[in-house]
């Protein structure tokens, strides 16, 4: 059911409000942090502790002057991204004067979620907005903006985990979640005004489109970017920076900047030059510029240049539909719609990089259920990466299991006439590898019963296609004192499989051996039992 | 400067030698970084140490990426007041944020040529004492390229002209560029030429194992020793890790962080 809804999400890009209504049965979109706890501590620390004696003392008095703004470190001012928990991850929100770039996934419209919330938040706070899009009628997109959730709900949600309609990032542990929420509230009483939760099911009410402060531009027919730059310049000129007082802030949202519909899209230097000028103008004004672009449409060097120009760099990625392997790896996989990667966090007026505990977060669609309960089972591993070359499972019992099924031999691409041949070749290469590593008491596992029988019995008339391979195996096998070959059914092999898959997806925790994630731990337990019984 | 006070970076780029008032004079230092790890802190570090090296030293700073208040705040935390130095005519901040060279129809040299004339003009008007300890800094070259509408030749011409100042007046030339832009083999001329010309290469990279709280990245410093032509010493390479703080940067060898 969720997956079907996820399909619908992809259609949301067609600016169809009716599709949005389909979400009624699903509820809300949630971003969750899979490695949560420490990040929240870090964020809290950065808002509470002054890093050096030079940073300005932050007072709450000024922040109450304008509810949409919040003081940050180093004399910066934050405005909200429209997603409360993304704000928390970024240390408070987007800094005024910064250029935020979102790298789109060409397969999925998740950047639209960020864009919609960013725009909605601005409109709710009556902050002027300039929106540019490659569609014919950019104003039509405003009809798809989400509406803020009810405020009462907002207030009580910190203590009550039964909320279900918000766009938010949920943390791993309930107790930390509660504490940190309280902290933020006590730090800044105006938090509710600074940032809202948005309900994607409800379109934004008409009262927020007073019209005067919304400027929409279609960039589809532009043959060069000068008119857009002029438009941005006049818009940003309203907010030119005056050190003493930040009275109002503006938002500029440019959707799919490099999309091929735009006639300028083959002029890379002009686009780079536009972004550079836009960044410079933003820097001297009290506004945040959010630009989404698709790196796949640009040359790699051009995309790198854009990434360098960005102050804050985010990227979104789709999670493939019904990927069973990934479903096993990720707790709550069915509720997820995509991944959010935070590649760079703005560091205006400072040279110290922002190091987040985790940089990959998942965007979730969640039905009415307690999110946090689900998350307690989820594991702290998404961020780190490690590539394992072979499926090697290390055990405390002094044996090394080498799992050699057909996949093991894949990367050499030799023509083979049957599955049996491949299995035999795989076993052979595993033996060679073990020999070269001096692993003389390894257990070789194959899921091909026929082959093992043949090897153990030394049956050389087993099958003409593998006979000579078996002979070679026999020779090599004599070197192995404590080694054995045994059959392993596919489901006994899950731990190694898990690791290999996680490593391939670059999602394997480095400390999986000492602190295995829960999903791996259960597999390991199971494997441990089986090896005890077989090795004795 | 006291010898004990030198950190690993300063040692690696040869600030410990006492041959000259400013050991880097006449040399070209190229700093390379990537999206994951910014090398801007090396510029800040060199900016501070060149201003404090000699009472009459002068820095000319070509800023393409940030406005003055950004550098002012950072350097103030490092213990160097740029605004005061600017008033004393020891720090010349040339704001290039909105520089846009004319399009290809007209000679696009014009924009950068004017910039060069400005730099040269600043040096000419200096007191003879400070003329020998001038540092020219560019932050950063990739944006200079964008300003020049992608014309690598114009950029290279400009950089060559700046380099002539190092031999003519004994200036130090420090530039930041982003290595990963050129890695896919598209138009690598610029970075290759720069790496060839540089006397000292400083590369900032992320840790191979990913992000860490205590270690922000690693630096590779390659000193070509181009000054001692008679001694054909091998090129020295220094590798170490760093952690960036507001008021200082810690440099340490891998694994020696306490």
Automatic annotation (TrEMBL), chain A:
Compositional bias per record (Basic and acidic residues), positions renumbered to this chain: 151-163
Region Disordered: start-end pairs: 142-163
Cellular localisation: Cytoplasm; Nucleus
A Gene Ontology cellular-component term: cytoplasm
InterPro entries the record matches: Elongator_complex_protein_4, P-loop_NTPase, RNase_H-like_dom_plant, RNaseH_domain, RNaseH_sf
RNase H type-1 domain location: 403-503
Entries under Gene3D superfamilies matching the protein: P-loop containing nucleotide triphosphate hydrolases, Ribonuclease H-like superfamily/Ribonuclease H
Keywords of this entry: Cytoplasm, Nucleus, tRNA processing
GO biological process: tRNA wobble uridine modification
Main location class: cytoplasm
Keyword Nucleus annotated: yes
Annotated GO MF terms: nucleic acid binding; RNA-DNA hybrid ribonuclease activity
Known pathway: tRNA modification; 5-methoxycarbonylmethyl-2-thiouridine-tRNA biosynthesis
Family membership: Belongs to the ELP4 family.
Protein name (Swiss-Prot/TrEMBL): Elongator complex protein 4
Lineage start: Eukaryota, Viridiplantae, Streptophyta, Embryophyta, Tracheophyta
UniProtKB/TrEMBL annotation, chain B:
Pfam families: ELP6
Record-level GO cellular component terms: elongator holoenzyme complex
Pathway: tRNA modification; 5-methoxycarbonylmethyl-2-thiouridine-tRNA biosynthesis
GO biological process, one term: tRNA wobble uridine modification
Protein family according to the UniProt entry: Belongs to the ELP6 family.
Protein name per Swiss-Prot or TrEMBL: Elongator complex protein 6
Gene source species: Senna tora
């Amino acid at each position: 059911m969720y997956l079907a809804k996820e399909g619908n999400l992809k259609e949301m890009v067609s600016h169809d409000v009716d599709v949005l209504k389909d979400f009624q049965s699903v509820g809300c979109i949630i971003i969750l942090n899979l490695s949560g706890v420490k990040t929240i501590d870090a964020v809290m620390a950065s808002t509470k502790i002054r890093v050096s004696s030079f940073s300005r003392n932050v007072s709450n008095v000024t922040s109450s002057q304008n509810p949409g703004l919040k003081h940050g470190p180093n004399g910066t001012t934050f405005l909200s991204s429209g997603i409360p928990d993304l704000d928390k991850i970024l240390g408070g929100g987007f800094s005024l004067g910064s250029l935020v770039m979102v790298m789109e996934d060409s397969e999925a419209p998740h950047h639209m979620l960020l864009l919609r919330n960013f725009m909605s938040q601005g409109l709710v706070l009556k902050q002027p907005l300039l929106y540019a899009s490659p569609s014919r009628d950019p104003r039509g997109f405003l009809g798809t903006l989400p509406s803020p959730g009810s405020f009462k709900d907002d207030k009580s949600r910190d203590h009550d985990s039964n909320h279900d309609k918000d766009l938010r990032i949920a943390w791993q542990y309930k107790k930390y979640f509660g504490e940190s929420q309280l902290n933020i509230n006590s730090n800044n009483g105006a938090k509710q005004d600074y940032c809202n939760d948005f309900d994607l099911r409800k379109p934004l009410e008409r009262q927020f489109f007073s019209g005067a402060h919304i400027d929409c531009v279609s960039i589809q027919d532009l043959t060069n970017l000068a008119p857009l730059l002029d438009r941005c310049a006049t818009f940003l000129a309203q907010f030119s920076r005056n050190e003493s007082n930040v009275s109002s802030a503006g938002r500029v949202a440019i959707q799919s900047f490099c999309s091929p519909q735009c006639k300028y899209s083959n002029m890379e230097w002009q686009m780079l030059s536009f972004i550079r000028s836009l960044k410079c103008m933003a820097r001297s004004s009290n506004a945040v510029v959010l630009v989404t672009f698709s790196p796949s449409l640009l040359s790699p060097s051009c995309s790198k240049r854009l990434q360098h120009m960005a102050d804050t760099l985010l990227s979104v990625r789709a999670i493939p539909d019904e990927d069973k392997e990934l479903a096993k790896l990720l707790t709550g996989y069915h509720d997820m719609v995509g991944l959010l990667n935070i590649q760079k966090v703005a560091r205006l007026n400072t040279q110290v990089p922002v190091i987040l505990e985790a940089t990959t977060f998942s965007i979730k669609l969640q039905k009415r259920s307690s999110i946090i309960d689900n998350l307690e089972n989820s594991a702290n591993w998404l961020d780190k990466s490690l590539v394992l070359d072979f499926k090697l499972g290390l055990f405390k019992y002094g044996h090394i299991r080498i799992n050699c099924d057909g996949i093991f031999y894949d990367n050499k691409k030799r023509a083979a006439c049957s599955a049996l041949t491949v299995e035999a070749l795989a076993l052979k290469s595993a033996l060679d590898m073990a020999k070269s590593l001096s692993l003389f008491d390894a257990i070789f596992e194959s899921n091909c019963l026929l082959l093992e029988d043949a090897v153990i019995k030394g049956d050389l008339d087993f099958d003409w296609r593998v006979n000579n391979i078996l002979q070679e195996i026999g020779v090599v096998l004599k070197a192995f004192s404590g080694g054995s070959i045994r059959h392993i059914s596919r489901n006994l092999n899950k731990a190694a499989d898990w690791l290999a898959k996680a490593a391939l997806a670059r999602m394997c925790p480095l400390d999986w051996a000492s602190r295995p994630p829960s999903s791996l731990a259960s597999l390991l337990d199971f494997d441990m039992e089986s090896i005890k019984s077989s090795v004795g | 400067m006291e010898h004990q006070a030198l950190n690993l970076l300063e040692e690696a780029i040869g600030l410990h030698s006492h041959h000259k008032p400013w050991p880097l004079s006449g040399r070209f230092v190229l700093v390379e970084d990537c999206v994951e790890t910014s090398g801007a802190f090396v510029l800040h570090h060199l900016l501070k140490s060149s201003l404090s090296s000699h009472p009459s030293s002068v820095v000319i700073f070509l800023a393409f990426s940030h406005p003055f208040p950004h550098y002012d705040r950072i350097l103030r935390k490092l213990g160097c007041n740029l605004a005061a130095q600017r008033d004393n005519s020891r720090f010349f901040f040339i704001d290039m944020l909105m520089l846009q060279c004319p399009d290809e129809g007209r000679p696009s040299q014009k924009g950068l040529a004017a910039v060069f004339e400005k730099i040269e003009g600043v040096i000419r008007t200096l007191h003879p004492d400070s003329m020998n300890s001038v540092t020219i800094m560019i932050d950063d070259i990739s944006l200079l390229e964008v300003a020049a509408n992608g014309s690598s030749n114009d950029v290279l011409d400009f950089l060559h002209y700046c380099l002539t100042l190092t031999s003519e007046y004994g200036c130090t030339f420090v530039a930041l560029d982003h290595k990963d832009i050129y890695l896919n083999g598209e138009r690598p001329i610029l970075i290759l030429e720069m790496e060839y010309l540089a006397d000292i290469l400083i590369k900032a990279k992320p840790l191979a194992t990913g992000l860490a709280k205590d270690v922000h990245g690693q630096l590779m410093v390659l000193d070509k020793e181009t000054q001692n032509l008679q001694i054909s010493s091998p090129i020295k390479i220094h590798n170490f890790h760093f952690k960036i703080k507001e008021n200082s940067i810690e440099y340490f060898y891998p694994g020696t962080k306490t």
